[in-house]
Amino acid sequence: MTFQPAEFAARRRRVKEAMSKAGFDLLVVCDPANMEYLTGYRGWSFYVPQAVLVHVDEDEPVWIGRGQDAAAAHMTTGLTPAHIIGYPDDHVQNRTKHPMNFVADHIRSRGWERASIGLEADAHYFSLRAGDALRADLPNARFRDCDHLVNWVRIVKSDAEIALMREAAKLVDLAMETAVDRIAPGVRQCDAVADIYGAQVRGTPAFGGDYTAICPLLPTGEGTATPHLTWSDAPFRNGEATIVEIAGSRKGYHCPMARTVHLGPPPQRLADTAKVVVEGLHAALDAARPGSTCEAVEAAWRAVIARHGIRKDSRIGYSIGIGYPPDWGEQTASLRPGDRTVLEPNMCFHCIPGIWQDGWGIEISAPFRVTDAGAERFCAFPEELTVKP
Amino acid sequence: MTFQPAEFAARRRRVKEAMSKAGFDLLVVCDPANMEYLTGYRGWSFYVPQAVLVHVDEDEPVWIGRGQDAAAAHMTTGLTPAHIIGYPDDHVQNRTKHPMNFVADHIRSRGWERASIGLEADAHYFSLRAGDALRADLPNARFRDCDHLVNWVRIVKSDAEIALMREAAKLVDLAMETAVDRIAPGVRQCDAVADIYGAQVRGTPAFGGDYTAICPLLPTGEGTATPHLTWSDAPFRNGEATIVEIAGSRKGYHCPMARTVHLGPPPQRLADTAKVVVEGLHAALDAARPGSTCEAVEAAWRAVIARHGIRKDSRIGYSIGIGYPPDWGEQTASLRPGDRTVLEPNMCFHCIPGIWQDGWGIEISAPFRVTDAGAERFCAFPEELTVKP
Question: Are the beta carbons of B118 and B150 closer than 8 angstroms?
Fold first, then answer.
C-alpha cells in the first residue's frame, strides 16, 4: 500500500462530509483516479465498467468490478474481502446485460434503492448506457450529478501525496532532458520518443516511473499550430520547432511539463513570443498565493500578454494529481476567467499557457504547488525556448 | 493521409448502409477509433468531448471538437474546411455548459432536430452528461443506442488495414523478444518496461511504432493471479512467473500478444497447464474458419481444457483493429458462448485464453486473421511457456 490506512480514512471522511453537505446518501464512483484515491485500487481494468460505492453510513466502501480483476482489488486495496465483489464475465461488452445492472442489484440488496445517489455524470468511463441502466433499474432512487465531488476533495494534497508529486517531477525533468538531447535534425521522431518513454519509466536508481495518463505529445514543424498531435517515424528537420508535452508519473501521481525545442536559429517571431510567454508564466505564478483565485492567476498572465498584443482564449492551466488515461488533469479547477476557486496550500496546478497560431506555436509550462509563501515550482528545467544550434 | 480517399468513401458508404438498415438519419460518433475510421482524425484530444456527425443524406461527415484541436483535424483528415468546427474553450470541464450543448446547436442549425439519431451509448468517451445534454437540447429528435454500429462495420478489414496490422505484428514480436531478454532475477520491473516501450516505439529501420491503447501489463509472482496489474520498481525474482501482455501499434492499428515468462525451472502445475493452454489455443485457431462462429471457436478451446479438468468462465478473445486508450479490443465480437457472430475473411482477433488461479496464472495468446484457408497467425513468437533457466 502506497498510503497509510489513516490517510485513506481521512480521504473517506472528507468525501462523506462533502456528500452530506450535498445531500447524497450514496456515491457511485467510476472515475479510476477516484476509485484509487478512496481504496488504493490500481489496475488497467477501467476499459470495462467498475465502481466503488461510498455510503455515508458505512465505514468501508465497496469495490465492484470484473471477476478476473477482483484478485487485483484484494492485492492493491486494504478492503476486507466481503467488500470486493466481482461480476460475471458475460456482462462484458454484451448487448443484453451491463455491469451497471449488476451494480444496481447490489445497491438493492443493501437496501439502498430509495437513496439519494450521486453519479459521476461526466467521468470518462461512465457511459450514457451505464447511467441509463442504473436509473432504469432503480426507479425509486433519486439520482443527481455529483459534479466531480471526489475530484474536488482530491484538489488539496496531503504531504504524502506531495512527496510523490516531487518524485514525478524528477522523472519529467529527466525525460525532458532526454527529449532535448535526442531531438536533432535527421533523427526519427519515434526514436526520440522511444528514449523519452525509457527515461519516464526507468527513472532513477532510487525509484522508477509509472505509465503516464497521456502519451508523449510531439507536434513538430507546422504541427506546432495545435497541441495534441503525436509522433510519426519521419525525421526532425533543421529550422523547425517541436513541442514536447510529457509527464512523469510516480505511483499514478503526475507532474507534467511542456517545452518547445527549435533546431537552428529560431525565427524572430518565435523568440519574441517565447519571451512574452515566459514573462506571462512568471506573472501567473507570482499571483498564485493562498486566498487568490484561479481567475486572478489567469488575469496576471493576460495582463502581460495584452501589453505585447497577444491574445489567448483558452485556459492556461488545470489542477493535477492522480491521473489515468486519457488525462492527467483533475477536471476541477481551471486557470481561466470565471473560475473563482480559491487557492489553498497544497493545491497543485500545471500552468501551460500554450500559444497556437497559423502554422506555428509555442508551449513553455510550469507545474507548481501552492504554498503559504506562494507558488513552489516542481521542476528545475529552464523556463525558456530551448534552442539547439 | 494513411488511407486513400476511396477507402474512406467505402467506409462511409458501409456505415450509411448500416444506418439506413437500422433506421438512423444521423449518427453522433464519439469513439475516437470510429472518428479516425471515418475521417482519418488522429490526436490525443479525446479527453474532452468531440464528435463526428454522419448524416445519411450527406457525402461528407462533420468533425466537431475543441477549438485548439481544429487545426489537427485540418492536418489529419481530408475533410473540407467547412466540415471542421471548433467549439469555444469555455465549454471544457465547465459545470454550466457542455460541448454536447454546442453539438446540439449545430444539429439544430442543420435542420436535423427531428431526426432519428444514433448514439454510441456505451462508448468510453460518451458520458452520461453528454447523452443527457443532447437529449435535453433536442427534445424532438428520436434517440436510440446505435449498438456500436461503426465498430461492427470496422470488424472486416481492408487489405490496406491488414498491411498495417502485419507491421504492428512485427512491432509486438520485437517488443516481446525484448521483454523476454530483459526479464531476469534482480532486474527492476521498470527497467524491463522501459526497454519494452523502446522496442514498441523504435520499431524497425523501415517503420516506427505508435502509442498502444494499453500500457505494458506485467503481473509478476503472485500478481499473475489477475490480468491487469502493471509494473513496479521492485526486481523480478528467481522462481517466479511474469505475464507480459503488450501490443505493437502501427498508425493506431494494434496487434496484441501475451506470453508468460518463468525464471528458473517452472512448477509442474504451470508447465502442465501451459501445454493444455497451447493445445486449446491451437484447437481454437483451427476452428476459426469463414462461416464458423465466435462461439464455435471458444467451444473448440473449451473441449480441450475440459478433457484436462480445467474450467474457464471468461471470454477467450475479441476483435482487434484500431485501438485507442483504454482498450485495443473493438468492443464487438467476443470469443465466448452465445456470440453467434459469423466469421468472415479479414476479421482479426486476439485469442487470449488466460487462466487465473489462486496465486498463479498463465497467458499465451495468438492474434490472427480469418482467411479462406483458416486462421492466419500475425506473430512469429513461439506459442509456449517461456522458461529462462
Answer: no
DSSP state of B182: H
CA dihedral A227, B79, A127, A212 (to 10 degrees): -30
One-letter amino acid identity for A74?
H
Q: Which residues from A are below 8 Å from B331, CB to CB?
A: 93
Is pLDDT above 80 for B1?
Answer: no
Closest CA to A336 of A283, A377, A288, A299: A299
Q: What is the pLDDT of residue A1?
A: 76
pLDDT in tens, B3-25: 999 999 999 999 999 999 999 99
Nearest to A310 by CA among A366, A269, A266: A269
Q: pLDDT of B334-382, one tens digit each?
A: 999 999 999 999 999 999 999 999 999 999 999 999 999 999 999 999 9
Q: Which residues of A223-246 are buried (b: 16+ CB within 10 A; e: fewer)?
A: bbbbbbbbbbbebbeeebbbbbbb
Strand pairing report for B51-55 and B26-29? antiparallel
**Residues contacting residue B218 through CB under 8 Å, at least 6 positions apart:** B189, B192, B193, B229, B230, B231, B242, B243, B244, B245
pLDDT at A58 over 80: yes
What mean pLDDT comes out for the span B142-154?
A: 98
Give the torsion sign (CA, A38, A43, A47, A48): negative
What is the C-alpha R_g of chain A?
Answer: 22
CB contact under 8 A, B128 and A119: yes
As beta bridge partners, residue A246 has: A257
Contacts of A23 (CB under 8 A, 6+ apart): A116
Contact between B229 and A191 using a beta-carbon 8 Å cutoff: no
Q: Which residues of chain A are within 8 Å of residue B145 when distances are taken between CB atoms? A: 128-129
Question: Three-state DSSP class for A341?
Answer: coil
Distance CA B63, CA B54 (A): 9
Measure Cα distances from B306 to A283, B225, B302 in Å.
69, 20, 6
How many angstroms from the chain centroid is the CA of residue A52? Answer: 19
Please give the C-alpha separations between residue A361 and each of A224, A225, A272, A358, in angstroms, as whole numbers.
5, 5, 12, 8
Q: How many CB atoms lie within 10 A of CB B7?
A: 17
Integer Cα distance of B31 and B124 in angstroms: 7
Task: Give the model's confidence band at B260: pLDDT under 50 very low, under 70 low, under 90 confident, else very high.
Answer: very high
Query: B338 contacts in A (CB within 8 Å)?
Result: 90
Nearest CB partner across the interface for A228, out of B43, B189, B327: B43
State the average pLDDT over residues B86-105. Answer: 96
Q: Is B59 exposed, middle or buried (0-12, 13-18, 19+ CB in 10 A)?
A: exposed
**By three-state DSSP, how is residue A106 classified?**
helix
Chain B, residues 264-303, CB within 8 A of chain A, namely: none
Contact present, B101 and B133 (Cβ < 8 Å): yes
Backbone angles phi and psi of A159, in degrees to 5: -65, -35
What residues pair up with A374 in beta bridges, in sequence order?
Answer: A371
For the question of an ipTM over 0.95, the answer is yes
**A127·B121 Cβ contact <8 A:** yes
Q: Distance (Å, rounded) from C-alpha A38 to C-alpha A41?
A: 8
pLDDT reported for residue B240: 98
Contact B226, A75 (CB under 8 A): yes
Q: Which residue has the cell 536533432?
A: A184
Q: pTM here?
A: 0.98
